Amino acid sequence: MKVLLLGSGGREFALALKLKASRLPVELVTAPGSDALAELGARVSLDTEDPAAVAAWCAAHRPDLVVIGPEAPLVAGVADAVRAVGVSVFGHGAATARLEGSKAFAKAFMVRHGIPCAASQTVTDLAEGEALIRAWPHGYPIVLKADGLAAGKGVVLAQDEAEALTTFRAFLGGQFGEASRTVVFEEPLVGMELSLHVLVDVDADHAAYALLPACQDHKRIFEDDRGPNTGGMGAFGPIPFLRPEDVERMRRELVEPTVRGLQKDGLAARGVLFLGVMWTPQGPKLLEYNVRFGDPETQVLMQLLEEDLPALLLEVAGHRFEGRELRMKPGCALTVVLAAESYPESARRGVPIQLGAPGLTVIHAGTRKQDGQWVTNGGRVLNLATLAPDLASARAAVEAALPEVHWPGMQVRRDIGLKALRHAEAGKTVQDPW
Fold first, then answer.
1. Quick check: 363 pLDDT over 90?
2. DSSP letter at 251?
3. What is the pLDDT of residue 111?
4. How far is 220 from 229, CA to CA, in rounded Å?
């Protein structure tokens, strides 16, 4: 089975390891790939956000499956172009990818289909936005979101009127180009945040989906959730205090209305939806849609998944998925991100990495090989991932492995999953204050 995997980061490396672990022989090709991914299969030079270029390569080389990792190629319409040349794609078309590509589009979708979410207002006019801030009825912080893709940096929780005005003026002035010419204002939601991934195979005549275990990401750079937001410093799943009835409530109130909404709006979906959820005192509310696997959640989910990944993704891509319950391994998976010096503001590159034998799954995210030596080449450099009988054991396994990996300036959070573990040990549920 020949698989073209688009992307280059930790998410794609975790997917590549799982694809190569198939019972079927898999010929893996990655674009643009990385030095680490090149050790798992061929690497080709492609502009992955150019639909015509990717479709032309697929027409010439005829992979059995294309798996699109990041959101930008999906928003650009790469999946549509590849399907047009008769190749199966795990990834949504551009129309459905707008659920991530446009915050305003996503909010309108949630409201239209009765999906619980934060109260919001979309603004494109400077005077209107300034007046809204001065008369904001929901208290602070105000959540300001750039409408389009902004490399994860287009969301600000403004703590007061002055910060809100400064942020709004910068957004509307083009801080993120066209992505911030439209701004979504939202009320702040308080509670426990979690990540819910759903495989979806949906069109007008067919609606199949399957839930993956809910995970929890840790966004801030420092322990105890301090410091600036990052792309994610670690994650674990499943969440030990999330009960079956809680999962069922998310299915009923968030997932099923989403699937019905896709059908009503004529949006075909053939890939994964990653729902950012805040569990509030009123229950689960949807923060956002992502139209691809999360990072670092993928590193957790690939540890847990018992299914043969190429066969499963081909079922979805080939419009043959029937929504069966997915087979998962028992226990808890956890991944910890090892980040470069100065991340997230910048990243010191080219620093030699001392990589011993940690005994866990090593996920390459931002590395390259220089004269036979792995060096840093991005903000989030490596992940250590493991599957253990429970969350406490998973944390202990990663802690024991950490001395095996080091470079000057390396940043790591040693509290991934600790708050959730204490919550569970105290006998608390998702309904209790987080």
1. yes
2. I
3. 97
4. 4
Q: Checking DSSP bridges between strand 367-370 and strand 373-376, what pairing results, if any?
A: antiparallel
> What is the Cα–Cα distance from 201 to 262, expressed in whole angstroms?
11
What is the fold of 120-186? Dna Ligase; domain 1 (3.30.1490)
How much is the pLDDT for 27?
A: 98
- Residue partners of 162: CB distance under 8 A and separation at least 6: none
Inter-residue contact 174 to 181 (CB < 8 Å):
yes
347 — alpha (psi -120 to 50), left (phi > 0) or beta? Answer: beta
C-alpha triplet 54, 58, 63: angle, nearest 5°? 130
Q: Which two tokens stand for residue 229?
A: 């937001």
In terms of residues, how long is the chain? 434
Nearest to 284 by CA among 116, 112, 113, 111: 116
For the chain, domain boundaries: 2-94, 120-186, 192-425
Residue 152 pLDDT level (bands cut at 50, 70, 90): confident
DSSP for residue 372 = T
Which residue shows structure tokens 């999946």?
79
- CATH 3.40.190.10 describes domain 192-425: no
pLDDT attached to residue 20: 98
* Strand 380-388, strand 361-364: pairing: antiparallel
- The strand pair at 216-217 and 234-237 is best described as antiparallel
Span of 130-134, 136-140, 299-303 with lowest mean pLDDT: 136-140
Q: 380-404, pLDDT tens digit by residue? A: 999 999 999 999 999 999 999 999 9
| Alpha-carbon separation of residue 198 from 209, 216, 285, 324 (angstroms) | 7, 15, 16, 12
**CATH second-level architecture of 2-94?**
3-Layer(aba) Sandwich (3.40)
* Six token digits for residue 181: 């010419």
Burial code (b: 16+ CB inside 10 Å, e: under 16) for 130-154 equals: bebbeebeeeebbbbbbbbbbeeeb
Query: How far apart, in whole angstroms, are the C-alpha atoms of residue 51 and residue 84?
Result: 10
> What is the tens place of the pLDDT at every residue in 52-67?
999 999 999 999 999 9
What is the residue type of 55? A
Give me the percent of the chain exceeding a pLDDT of 70. Answer: 100
Using a cut of 0.70, tell me whether the model's pTM lies above it: yes
Q: Kindly give the residue spans of alpha helices, DSSP state H, lying in 135-230.
A: 161-172
Instruction: Please choose, from the candidates 368, 414, 424, 366, the residue with its C-alpha nearest in 3D space to the C-alpha of residue 391.
Output: 424
